[in-house]
Write the structure tokens for this entry.
Amino acid sequence: MAGSLPVPRSTSSAATLPDLDLTARMRRLCEHICASLDELRHVDMRRVALRVCQTRRRGPYGVQATMTPLRFRDGATSTLRRNRRWIIRPMPLDAEGNPCLYLFSLYVPRFLDLPAAEKLAVTIHELWHISPDFNGDLRRFPGRYHAHGSRCDKYHDDMRDLTRRWRATQPATPLFDFLEGDFKSLRQRYGRILGMRLPTPRLWRVDALPREERPKDDASAA
């Protein structure tokens, strides 16, 4: 479902502002990135759900964006923990009604308060988490710290470098326009900031679900 962040309208001219559909603009940007950056060509944005989450507090600290895998290791649709089978639900669906493989969440206004170059670096940072196999699992680094490697700050510095190199190859395009400015200035420019809101997928124990909601291949559903 779509939602909007509260926007004060103090002048009559505000009614003519165009609105900023953040999830639609971010989707087009991500599609462009994945089509033009060799390291991300394996990503099919049709199978990535994108949503906006409203943060309670503004400021530079805290989560700005996340990429949530909607499958388990190596793309498995369920996992065993403590001899119980677990699945992820609810699953966002793509345009054809198939379960998505990933959920990309933007935390607003925190994400929009970043400088434009950092917004772009955070976006590529999250897209980079998607497994090269594009199977619903994350890209895994060797060792204990599989998500970012041994140092998260080095991972993000690498993403900044990759972003700068890629951005230098890109011609001027309106795709990047909405990255300029913070949350306040974007509201003044566009009026309302709209975004898709989706429920957060969670782990569910299969045998705790009603029988009609269990996976069809679950032996306990018989």
Q: What stands out?
A: Residues 6-13 have pLDDT under 50 and may be disordered.
